[in-house]
Amino acid sequence: MQTQVHLLHHVPLSPFCRKVRLTLAEKRIPFSLKEERYWEGGTEFLRLNPAGKVPILRYEGRLLYESQAICEFLDEIHPTPPLLPDDPAGRYEVRRLCAWFDDKFHAEVTANLLYERVNKKIMGTGYPDSQNIKTGSARIKYHLDYMSWLLEHRRWLAGNALSLADFTAAAHLSCLDYISDVDWDRAPAVKAWYATIKSRPAFRPLLADQVPGFPPPRRYADLDF
Amino acid sequence: MQTQVHLLHHVPLSPFCRKVRLTLAEKRIPFSLKEERYWEGGTEFLRLNPAGKVPILRYEGRLLYESQAICEFLDEIHPTPPLLPDDPAGRYEVRRLCAWFDDKFHAEVTANLLYERVNKKIMGTGYPDSQNIKTGSARIKYHLDYMSWLLEHRRWLAGNALSLADFTAAAHLSCLDYISDVDWDRAPAVKAWYATIKSRPAFRPLLADQVPGFPPPRRYADLDF
């Protein structure tokens, strides 16, 4: 049995940190959290991670960076329950969708909505740019439609089993749901998928997150939203 | 024996396309190239890839996207020679460094230098922004120093064997070398590493690339640069 407690340096509304939290919790790997104001830099934090960002996982004395690399590592050394399938084609599809959300969705939606509304205020880097908000609000529709199309053909995003692709997508969407930027009525299939993910024990701690100055809407933590 | 010829939709000076070309060639998977003016969009191209970007690999009748997912897929189904090691910690380190170059190096260096100098002109989206060029020129020094530090401790970037991390880094650096933006004198260890990669048969086709309007410097293709 695993008894050592690992430490995740994180911020609550980071989709990349949330992806690692979901993976650790789903695999029942005990860990504690330490919040980092990483944007303030400072030599102590840069000594932790020269890339100057979170998540950072302190795992058996080693520091691990990059959420996708961390999650695949955890999946390899704690294979139960699996978050990537056994066959190369299935694994390709999970990785493709992880990149879709961490690159494309992140650049088009997360950066334009979450970073404009929340990160700028917390980091003291100015006011939300209304053009970016407008772009993000338009692009999220396209992504919800794409997810709906995937879920018409599959039980989970990458196939018929829950995978890291679902956690990656849910990590982004949950941050946007915290700031009421997801129009669930547009995509009933995505809403049903998110309700299922939301009710997993691994998801509970994310629903209890509170960011000072940004109270979540009531339905954020509501399993019957 | 593999005899089917696969098709890679690409542009010559894309580090992501180059990474896939290097992986295919290293594994001696026969493929042909088709150049795409992906930024012009158009329904035919978007039908190929809804994400609207290259590389796209047509592989046994299937379309594959996202360079890292493609390369890991190719490594799994064509395991010789291996581009990821067998142990989870070694695989983590390769994936971490791939993300370092494809995310951090890409955003700080490739986007500020290559996209400003070349892509803007080819795509007709304006003139290079001198502030971005300045930022990119400053940041590449930091990355060359980081690579030097890695290569003081290891034969290859991620350990003692050639891996996808080396191809990822070389894909970015080779595009920047094409536009004379790499100060090799700053980092002799990186220069020696690049000379070794450059002399591999898999690298040859990249050295023959010619982009109209942007003739490469003579030393770009020179193995003894």
From TrEMBL, chains A, B:
Signal peptide: none annotated. One of its GO terms (molecular function) is glutathione transferase activity. Keywords: Transferase. It comes from the Bacteria. InterPro entries: Glutathione-S-Trfase_C-like (IPR010987), Glutathione-S-Trfase_C_sf (IPR036282), Glutathione_S-Trfase (IPR040079), Glutathione_S-Trfase_N (IPR004045), GST_C (IPR004046), Thioredoxin-like_sf (IPR036249). Residues 87-223 form the GST C-terminal domain. One of its GO terms (biological process) is glutathione metabolic process. Residues 4-82 form the GST N-terminal domain. PANTHER family: GLUTATHIONE S TRANSFERASE D10, ISOFORM A-RELATED. Homodimer. This is Glutathione S-transferase.
